[in-house]
Amino acid sequence: MSTPETGFTGKLITCREIVGMIPDFLDGKLSGRQQEHFLEHIRNCRNCYEELETNYMVNRTINYLDQDSRAGGSFDFKPMFEKDLEEQEEKIVKNRKIRELRLVILACTLLLFLFLVLDVTGIFSITAFFG
Question: Taking the model in full, what pTM does it have?
Answer without folding.
Answer: 0.60
